[in-house]
Design brief:
By secondary structure, this protein is of the alpha+beta class. The protein contains 4 helices and 7 strands. The structure holds flavin-adenine dinucleotide (FAD).
């Protein structure tokens, strides 16, 4: 049911789209918010094997939205190189669609937090575990299971075969 990209020559490969998710440090998580208003919230994340993990407080608009409706999308902009004289931008981005849920299982929660810790402070596993132990009771982790993902780039950035 997911749409195909109209400009197929701008479609990135799955590997290129994954690279964007791996390199990015934040994106916008789109949820169905209050009264049907889309809630698009900027957030840090880590991508792992077809899933995207986010950490969050246990309450708020985002958590309420996730709990009431599990379909979500997540967008990361990798490049936005504005070319004033060309009235365009040389862009590269990815959008992932999927189902999002709060992780309840404690072992899964710790392993997702460890992935987030390693992504943002690589090479310090014991510091990361100490941080997790400090905040484990106040933090919540969301998991987006990706069902469909597309990467797109301006024509100028597409590698010619
Ligand atoms: C680059 C970046 C990375 C971030 N990383 C994380 C992260 O990893 N985890 C995390 O929990 N939060 C992160 N944040 C903060 C995040 O954007 C939210 O502010 C936060 O998660 C609280 O969301 P909430 O829905 O619970 O807030 P609530 O306070 O419940 O939201 C209520 C209202 O406040 C407004 N609001 C909330 N957040 C923002 C915002 N960022 N900008 C403008 N208005 C806002 C909206 O109108 C919203 O409806 C990050 C923000 C940025 C910019």
């Amino acid at each position: 049911m997911f749409r195909e990209m109209r400009r197929k020559n701008q479609l990135l490969t799955k590997e290129e789209a994954e690279k964007i998710l791996e390199n990015g440090t934040s994106g916008t998580l789109a949820l169905l918010g209050d009264e049907g208003y889309p809630y698009c919230v900027p957030i840090s994340y880590v991508y792992n094997n077809g899933r995207i993990y986010f950490h969050s407080a246990k309450s708020g608009h985002k958590i309420d939205a996730v709990k009431s409706y599990d379909k979500a999308s997540f967008c990361v902009i990798d490049k936005d190189d504005v070319k004033p004289q060309e009235y365009t931008t040389y862009f590269r981005s990815v959008i992932a669609f999927g189902r999002i849920h709060v992780i309840d299982d404690k072992d899964e929660l710790i392993s997702a937090l460890s992935l987030l810790g390693e992504r943002y402070n690589p090479g310090h596993p014991s510091d990361c575990i100490a941080e997790i132990n400090k905040f484990i009771n106040n933090v919540c982790v969301l998991c987006l299971d990706i069902e469909h993902m597309t990467g797109k780039a301006a024509r100028e950035l597409i590698k010619k075969p």
